[in-house]
Structures are given as structure tokens and as C-alpha cells.
Prior knowledge:
Layout: H1 6-27, H2 32-43, H3 55-75, H4 79-110, H5 115-126, H6 130-139, H7 146-168, H8 173-177, H9 183-221, H10 225-245, H11 251-262, H12 268-293, H13 297-301, H14 303-327, H15 332-341, H16 347-358, H17 364-403, E1 407-411, E2 417-424, E3 438-442, E4 445-452, H18 462-470, E5 486-489, H19 493-504, E6 509-513, H20 516-524, E7 529-531, H21 538-542, E8 550-553, H22 558-571, H23 573-577, E9 582-587, H24 590-598, E10 603-606, H25 607-620, H26 631-753, H27 758-794
Parallel strand pairs: 5-6, 5-8, 6-7, 8-9, 9-10
Antiparallel strand pairs: 1-2, 3-4
Helix pairs in contact: 1-2, 1-12, 2-12, 3-10, 3-11, 3-12, 4-5, 4-7, 4-14, 5-16, 6-7, 7-9, 7-15, 9-10, 9-11, 10-11, 14-15, 14-17, 15-17, 16-17, 22-24, 26-27
Amino acid sequence: xxxxxxxxxxIAIGFMLAYIFGxxxxxxxxxxxxxxxxxxxxxxxxxxxxxxxxxxxxNQISEVGVILLMFGVGLHFSVKDLNEVKSIAIPGAIxxxxxxxxxxxxxxxxxxxxxxxxxxxxxxxSVASTVVLLRALEDNNITQTPRGKIAIGWLIVEDLLTVIVxxxxxxxxxxxTGEGFDLxxxxxxxxWTAVKxxxxxxVMFFFGGKIIPAAIYRSAATGSSELxxxxxxxxxxxxxxxxxxxxxxxxxxxxxxxxxxLNGSELSHRAADNTLPLRDAxxxxxxxxxxxxxxYQVIISNPLxxxxxxxxxxxxxxxxxxxxxxxxxxxxxxxxxxxxxxxQIGEFSFILAGxxxxxxxxxxSMKDLILAGAIIxxxxxxxxxxxxxxxxxxxxxxxxxxxxxxxxxxxxxxxxASPSVTWEASHKPAHAEDKVVSEEKDLTNPDVEIxxxxxxxxxxxEEELDKAFEEDHAFTNSQVLMSKHxxxxxxxxIGKAIVKRLNKAAIPLVVITxxxxxxxxxxxxxxxxxxxxxxxxxxxxxxxxxxxLSVIFTCENIFEIGYxxxxxxxxxxxxxxxxxxxxxxxxxxxxxxxxxEKHHVTDIINLRDLASLILFTRSxxxxxxxxxxxxxxxxxxxxxxxxxKNKRAKRQALIAKAxxxxxxxxxxxxxxxxxxxxxxxEQQAALAAQEAQNSADEQAQQVAQQAQxxxxxxxxxxxxxxxxxxxxxxxxxxxxxxxxxxxxxxLNVLKEQGVVDTATDKAEAAEEAEENKSEASEEAQAKxxxxxxxxxxxx
Length: 795
């Protein structure tokens, strides 16, 4: 490897590893950011798995991504937007930073740190990352929402506070040592920082406001996209550099103000589009650079410290922000969004920690804790946003259910109220006039109202819409359940023209847009609309796509459209079986047409072909757009006829494919239903068998218990009989004994009289006694056996 080309090496290897692990993370359904961070860990000096990259150079390259990102944010963020959120962002950001520092200082002092050291550590944990915050807002499509604007304003204030701290940090040694405080030097540094920032703002708005737009317009006038892109990069990077070198302001703030100067011009969107690829690419290198800083050994040596640091960043700082925003009267949605977006730290924390270590305010181990906490917070931040969105969906459903009993219904023709056209009573403005809508019944489904003709949307002012957003449940400007309608994605110039024609044809429609300004316009124009990103197919479900006749994509996000239609195809294949159902999109190149066809878009308008057809037709006859008398135009019609034929063949193939999917879906549902039925039958059979077993066991137990009782009775009776027999035997023995004694007495008397021989008599007497005893015993034994037999028979 050639180590004399560190710039090329770090860019090439960084992009390759980021791509590999980003794809792996995506395959595991994780945020690609996790893959980028892991690539940086492998590339960093603490692992050096592939290449020991230059860490300082990597940080400088990643700073380009921060500059382009903030420039893009400024292009969509005006001075008016900044003024609107200043009453929340300025006190909120300052209080959040001070609150976090205070809590960390108290805990740090309790565990043995000095007050100053604990405060500096808390300062490093209180400042959010610009890149991570803006990336999260963009990924969740809330950058242009009121809560997104508050989060960006909050971020700008934090950046300004960081700039002030960076300037004052060298003069803070007296807080650490207790000596050497120079009030004049401290105050002068603070004064010059404020003066330089004010001068930067003045130069940007009074001079930059004229020079920057003029440079952009002149570049666009050349007709060279290369020069226009170059002008955009020169302005964003050049002003960011001047902001740091001349005015001592951060790169991020310089780029943000440069973008804000261009905000509102018709070329601002083109400038944003031109810088988007570079912004994304260098933004990836930012996360790679963060991963390179990570020292995995700190997790082994001090796991409790890492966990505590991460908890401060994710939990403590977020709770402080949440309490502050709720205390300012903002909604639960706004408070959650800002607190979750702030639950991470990044580049400014690294800079502060590095300088603090250099000045001796912090130790290297504390810096490693800050870096480890940053990695953990950045990894978990996408999951926090996902959890927040799920919670807010549950919360929205609960609020909507609670408000269903307190709604205003717009009257329809013949003064008959339509239950499907509703708006919350608290949101109805005093100046709003109820619109009249025509309604008809779907004969195939009488329960579904078909809304057509004039719009039934109650117009709201932008202030009322902002309030509705803040109250957590205004995601659509109407509550209409449509059928046989058209879903229009996007409300820019093409979308507006289509909506106008649909309204003229009395075709019901609903618009899906993730641009807040476009959403405001739909409200002013009285158009049903849903605010959200079309890539989230849940918005199509909200637009009742299962009963729609067509979907029209007016944007040119080819890849997003293709993948979205794929999801719809898998979820609702039955729609594609219906020949009248249509999904339309526009494309500029043949490969885009092929891509959309491959991803089940049924009708694709090739803008180049359409333009060539119109230009050709107008050149032949300006008055008659369609005339078959011209030979060339007849040839064009033949080509179109061939295309129509191919298109029909492809549509038939798509219908067949959809039908197969529908059949498979029905078969799976049938198999699932059969399995559930079989499982239910098996459960019922098992339950019946269990009940039978329980019943049999109970009966057997009763029989056994009865038999046991009889056996015990028989045993008691047998014992009683044996006792009686024993008593009889004893009595018989006593009788025989008595008789023997009497006989012996009689013999003795006879002996005395000399009648009987003594020996003979004794023998005979003993033999007779033995016989009598044997007879008595046999009699008792026979009686006992008879009693036992009777007991057995009874048992």
C-alpha cells in the first residue's frame, strides 16, 4: 500500500468499508449508520484491521459533509423561520445545556471529581451532533414541520454556545486551579466573540445577500451545470472557511448562513439537488471518522462508566429538554421529537473534549468515556426515533378516538349531513364557510360514500394548521373516506395541474405530500391531503388505496417510486388484476422507464418522447395537434401504435402476474384458515378428551373411594369376628381347663379311695385334655374362616 497518498487511501478504503457494512446493516434491517460506525472502528488506530488511517485527515474530510449538510438546511430555512422559533430555541437550548451541566456536576462531585472538571465533562455531554440530528430529522421527514424547525433552531443556539465556550476555554484555567483569573481578559474574549459573530451576520446579510445570489444566477445563466455546481460548492465551502478563519465562527454556522441567504430563490432547490450526492457521501465519512475515534478497551476497563455516560446523554439530557419544552406549553409530539433528536452527541463534544484534555481539564480516560457514550448514543438514536413514532401513532389513535364525539360535520346537498366529512370543532375557524359536496352511493358497496365534485375541506390559516400539528392529531386536512378516487403524490407544479383537471372532471382525489408548504397550499386550495412521506405505504392505506381507481406520482424519485409500488403490489395484488386500475409515473430516460416497468408501474410517461412528439406536431401544424394528413406524423402514430401494443402486452403480463400473486395469497389465506380450523378442532377435541378424562377419573376415584370404604368396613368386621373367635376359643380353653381340673380332682378322690391306678389315670386325663383343646381350636379356626369368606364375598 502506498502510504504517501493518505487522502486517497482514507477516502477509498473508508467508502468501501462503509458501503460493505452499511449494506450488511441494511440487510439486518438496521440503520446504515451502524455499519458506517463499525467501518470506522475497523479503520481506526485502536484496531487497524485494514489500514491505520490518519485520524486528523479523516476528521477534516468529514467536516466537508457537515458543511454541505448545514448549507442544505439553510437553503430550506429562512430568517422568518428562525425568528418564529427563537422564543423557544434560545431559552430552551441555554436552559438544557445548563441543566445537563448542573446534574452532571452534582453527580461528578459526589463521586470525587472537582466541580470544574465535572462541569466540563457535563458540557461535553450536553451538545448534540449537527449531522446526527439533521440526518434523523430528514430520515423521518420532519425537517420542514414546526417541531423540526424548533429542533434546528435549538441546534443553532447550541452551536453558538459551543463557539463561545471554545473561545473562552483557554481562559478558564483559574476555575481548575483557583488562581490566575483575569476578569479583563475573560470579558474581552467574550466581547470580541460577540463582536465577530455580529460582524459575520452583518456581512452575510448586507453584502452576501447581494453577492451570493448574483453569483448563483450568473452561473446558471451560463447554461453549464458544471459551473453551477462549482459555484454552489465554492459558496458553501468558501463561506464556511471564511467564517472560521476570519470571524472565528464554526464551519456549520458559516455554511448554514450561506444557505439561508439563498433561501427563497428559484435556484435554491437546484442548488440543494446538485450538492446532495456530495453531501451524502461526505456525511458517510463523518460517521466513519467518529468510529475511528472509538477505543474499545474503555468498555472492558470501565463498563459502569460507559453505561453511566450513555445514560446521561440518552436519558438525562432528553428528560431535561422534554420538561423544558412541555413547560413552555408545547405539545407532547414536539417535546418528544426534540428530546429524542438531542439524545446523542458528536463533533462539537469531540472538539471540546480534545481541547479540555490539552489544557489539563479532563483526563484521557474521561475523553474515552465521552467517545464511547457518543458511539452508543448515535447507534441507538434511530431506534429511539422508531420507538417514538410507534408511541405517537398509538397516541394519535387514542386522541382521535377521544375526539370523535366532538366533531363538526359539513352539510351536504339537500341539507343532508355526510358522516365522512368531519373536522374537529376546536380547529374550525370563524371565517370558514362550509363547502357543498355532491355524493352518490357505490351500488356495489352501499356503505361507502363516494365524494366527488367540489372539495369539502374547511380552509384553515397557516397559524391554525401549525396549532393543529402541535396538538398531535392533524395529519390530514379532512376525515373523508373516499372510493373510486385518484391518489396524487406531490403537490408541486405538475401535481397542481393534475389536481385542477381532476376537480374540473369531478373526480374525487386525495394528495399525499411530505412538504409542509405544499400541505399548506392544499389546505388553501380546498384539496384533501395527507401529510407524510409516500415511501411509507401506511399513508396509502390512510388514503384508502384498496378502493382507489388510480395513483399518480408527480415527483421524479424513480427508485423510491419503484420500491413503493413494489410494496403496494405485494400488499394489494388484487388492484393490479383490475384493468382499470392504474399507477402512473414520469421518467426522463429509457432505463428509468425499464426500471419502473420492472417494479410494476402500469403507466409511464417518458418526458423526452412526449416533448419530441409535441414539438414535432407543433412544427407540422400549430393549429391542429393531431392530423393524419402529414406523412411524418402518420409514421409517428404507427410508432405509438406499436408502443401501445407492447404496453398492452406488458399490462396483460402484469395482470397475469398479479393474478398469480392473488391466487397464492388466497391459497395461503385458505391454508392458514384451514390450519386455524384444524387447530381449533384439535383444541376442541383435546378439550373434550380432557373433560372425558377428568369425568372418568372422577368416577373412578368415586368407585375406588367406595371400594376403599367397603374394604375398610370388611376389614373392621373381620377383625371383630376374629376377636370374637379368639374370645370363644379362650372361653372354650377355660372350660376345658376347668373340666380338666375337675376331672383331676375326681381322679385324686378316686385315688385316695384306691379305685384308679395313678399313672394310668394321669396319662388318660392328659390325653383327654389335649383332645378337648384340639377340638376347641379347630372349632374356633373354622368359625374364623367362615367369617373371612363372608367378608370377601361382601367386598
